[in-house]
Amino acid sequence: MQSKLAHVCIETDDLDATENFYRVLGLERRFEFKNQHNDLVGFYLAFSNLTFIEVIKVRKPRPEGVVRHFAIEVDDVDAWFERLQANGIDVTAKEYAGDDNWMITCRDPNGIFIELQQYTDKSMQRIGGHCKVNYVP
Description:
By secondary structure, the chain is an alpha/beta fold. It has a single domain, classed as 2,3-Dihydroxybiphenyl 1,2-Dioxygenase, domain 1. The protein has three helices and eight strands; from the N terminus they run E-H-E-E-E-E-H-E-E-E-H. It starts with 6 loop residues before the first strand and ends in a 10-residue tail after the last helix. The mean pLDDT is 88.
């Protein structure tokens, strides 16, 4: 038996800005939601592997249930850094994370924190293990 992430749903009050941001990250609209008035109220944006971000339009995004962050696996973190910068997106410098991968971070137009991770042969996502972190809840 196997499982994998199907989608993450985010709320927005600006469908266009949200779609444009994720298009820079390589996602394309797979299908859309229209209401009984034929108004566009959301869509699914597709990664290349049947994993999606569902975007739903709201008048005002709710503060509760906010996605803390999500991560996207990329094959070349340096190339993605250049692409994000070239599109006017504020992105952090590349760093080597405690779970043995290269990472850059940014925020989408709705304030959602996104990690772009390039796995290495030592990445815990590939081999498992214990990751020491400087974190106290």
